[in-house]
Structures are given as C-alpha cells and as structure tokens.
Design a protein that fits this description.
binds adenosine monophosphate, 8-stranded mixed β-sheet, binds manganese (II) ion, 8 strands
Length: 286
Amino acid sequence: MAQQYPVSPIDLHMHSMASDGTMTPADLVQRVHGAGVRVMALTDHDNTAGLEEAAIQAEALDIRLIPGVEISSEWETQGIHIVGLFVDPKNSVLQEGLSRIMAFRDWRAMEIDRLLANAGIPGAEAGARAMAGSRMVGRSHFGRWLVREGRCADANEAFGKYLGRGCKAYVPSNWIPMTEVVGWIHAAGGYAVLAHPGRYKLSGTRLRALLSAFRDAGGVGLEVCTGSQAAGDREHLGRLAQQLGMAGSVGSDFHGPDAGHAAIGHLLPLPDGVEPVWERAGIHLY
Ligand code: AMP
Ligand code: MN
Ligand code: MN
Ligand code: MN
C-alpha cells in the first residue's frame, strides 16, 4: 500500500516555468499555499528569473519564500545537482556562473536539434523553446515536444529513446565542477545542499566519497527526504548526514500537477537527530 504522508510544513525544492516546471512562479506559490506548506524554496535549474514574481505572491499569501536555485554540476564524471538555498540572486559571482551554464544549455539545445534531425525528427529546438515559455531550455522541454508531436508516448519514453545518456540525441554534458559551483553559492551568501542523493545510483562507497568531497568543498547538507525515493533511503541518508556532520534538507522536486511528479509537501519529516538545514538560517519549525 502506498505510504500516507502528512503534508510537510516546509518544501525546499521545486520548479516553475523559469526552468522546466509547468506553472508560473505566482501560480506555483498559490498552489504551495493551497497545499498547506508554509515555507518554500523556489529552486529552478540554473537560473533565478522566477524569484521576483514568486516573492510578490509569497508576500501576499504569507508564505515564507527562500530564494534558491538548483545548479547542474559534476563531480569526477558524475553529473550532480546542487541546490543553493538562501542565495542572494543579485550576487554577480552567482549570476556570472549561471550565465555560463545557460550558454552551454543554448549550445546543447542546438546539438540536440541536430541529432534529432539526423534521426529524422526536424524542428526540435524551435519546438522545445516554444514549450519552454522562458529562456531556459532543457531536456524536459524536448521530451514534452516529442510527446506532443506524437513521437513518444510519454516523457519517460522520450528520455529512454532519445534524450537519456547514451541515446540518439544525447549530448555529453559539460557542467561546471562541484567545487566551483559551491563557491558561487557561498559568494551569494547561500547554503549548498546536494540534491536527491539517491537518484545518482551510486554504490554506498561512492556516495560516501561524493558526500565527503562535497562537504570538503563547503557543502553543508543533503536532501534526506525527497519527493520520490526508495524505501529506506530516508533513514540511510539521515545516518550518512549525521556521520558526516552534515545538515538535512527536504524537497519534493515538484515540477507540475501532472502525473509522474511528486506533489508539493509530499515529504516525511527529517529523521530524529538530523540537523535541519533551515535552522542554520534561524527558521524553527519542528
Ligand atoms: P537537463 O537539466 O536539461 O539535462 O534535464 C534534466 C531534467 O530532465 C531533470 O531535472 C528532470 O526534470 C528531467 N528528467 C530526467 N530524466 C527524466 C525522465 N526519465 N523522464 C522525465 N523527465 C526526466
Ligand atoms: Mn527538472
Ligand atoms: Mn535535480
Ligand atoms: Mn529539481
């Protein structure tokens, strides 16, 4: 039987149309309010363009909005996502870093377009950009376009057939190394948290090595509770956080109300004994 979750009062990982979410920042905050979540972070991929609109709506609905960003990065050859929380979006070091990633995304979109055209599917970049509705274009947008065009049954098939690692339209990523990305987050006064550690499919030894390297680089925490995680992950990640002296975060990774994404606030609390990362910023909840 599916586990029944109480709604978490805090959710520190979600996306709007400023990246690959399907809701506007204002509608997203409205939905957060409706779900009963009181503290949220907007963490769009590689840009902070949604924060201003989200802040206006959050103020109106008495939601505490933590400015965030989810930065695409890599450690050794492993692609990873680093969530920056409490970042100052006006910081120039952060924004210069993010603009490098956005430039890579633009180039990659052209490459994906070329590879899909070679596979007999022309017009993908224009199509994906039209789906995106903002400057950031990512593989999710290509996936949605492939589904809309009837080329794939769903996003999962689009990733499995074309967009995923090793597939026909896969472009090897060239993200900025972890240590540098953590440096940008620090420059912007934020806390760096390793996103969804269970999703990298690393062995226990490798995950521990990643986490200690991340901590040595200045990372303060990891997402112990995420929207879609395997049974036992929460307890395992909670123990790792404690052993490594790192804080824990909770985040659904909400992308939209459509099926296939975790719901806002659909999160268990941190295991006992794990330090909540938000307490470092003076927020006390439970
Ligand atoms: P990108 O950052 O442009 O390389 O795209 C990565 C994003 O694609 C992730 O943040 C997810 O939102 C989405 N994604 C990755 N794998 C899948 C999948 N199998 N099905 C649907 N969406 C996926
Ligand atoms: Mn995404
Ligand atoms: Mn991610
Ligand atoms: Mn995410």
